[in-house]
Structures are given as structure tokens and as C-alpha cells.
């Protein structure tokens, strides 16, 4: 019984850590939204990839949803400046990320 209790406490601690990470991520997104601009394209690409992961969307599923190849998605997540704006916009929209704070 004590072993089960210890396991539950361990899992609760892990969930709390995960919750803190999600809160920190959401706060960072909110700060960027409030700033109203994207200042670092590589950070924006990473943010899109982090959003995809937080939603539990695999690259293959995002490819099916957007029609954008996995290789292009990988390039977008590394450096969006190398990708057509329409593609960046489509992927961001699919992930629920607004590119306009106006």
C-alpha cells in the first residue's frame, strides 16, 4: 500500500512539473502576442513546433492536415524565413496560432 502511495505521489509531482512547463509556455506565447510582433523567425519556428508537440500532432498528421510535406515542415520549424508566407500562415492557422495581434 505504501508503494502505491509513493508511486501516486511521484506521478503527482511529475504532473505538477508538466503543468508548470505548460504555464510557462503559455505565458511566453502571451508575451509575444502582447508585444504584437515576431522579432526572431527561428524562435517563431521553434514556437510553432513546440505548439505542434503540445497538441500531440505528429508531423505526418500535420502533413495530412495541411498538404505541406514533412521536409518543408521541418524546414519551417527550423527557419521560417526560407518558406513561403502562405505555407507559414497555413501551418500557423492549423495549429491555432494567430499571426496578427491587431
Provide structural commentary.
With 102 residues, this protein is mostly helical. The protein has five helices and no strands. It has helices at 2-35, 41-54, 59-66, 70-78, 85-94.
Topology, please?
Layout: H1 2-35, H2 41-54, H3 59-66, H4 70-78, H5 85-94
Largest sheet: none
The helicity comes to over 70%
Contiguous helical run count:
5
- How far the N terminus sits from the C terminus, by CA atoms, comes to 56 Å
Let me know the average pLDDT: 88
N-to-C order of helices and strands: HHHHH
Structural class: mainly alpha
Which term fits the overall shape? elongated
Number of strands: 0
Low-confidence stretches: none
> What is the CA-atom radius of gyration, in angstroms?
17 Å
Share in β-strands: under 5%
Short description:
The chain is mainly α and about 100 residues long. It has five helices and no strands. The model has no long low-confidence stretch (mean pLDDT about 90).
Descriptive key words:
mainly alpha; elongated; 102 residues
Amino acid at each position: 500500500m505504501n508503494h502505491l502511495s509513493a508511486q501516486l505521489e511521484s506521478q503527482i509531482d511529475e504532473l505538477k512539473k508538466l503543468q508548470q512547463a505548460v504555464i510557462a509556455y503559455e505565458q511566453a506565447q502571451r508575451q509575444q502576442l502582447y508585444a504584437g510582433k515576431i522579432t526572431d523567425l527561428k524562435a517563431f519556428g521553434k514556437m510553432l513546433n513546440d505548439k505542434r508537440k503540445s497538441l500531440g500532432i505528429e508531423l505526418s498528421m500535420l502533413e495530412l492536415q495541411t498538404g505541406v510535406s514533412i521536409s518543408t515542415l521541418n524546414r519551417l520549424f527550423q527557419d521560417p524565413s526560407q518558406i513561403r508566407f502562405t505555407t507559414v500562415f497555413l501551418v500557423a492557422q492549423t495549429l491555432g496560432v494567430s499571426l496578427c495581434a491587431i
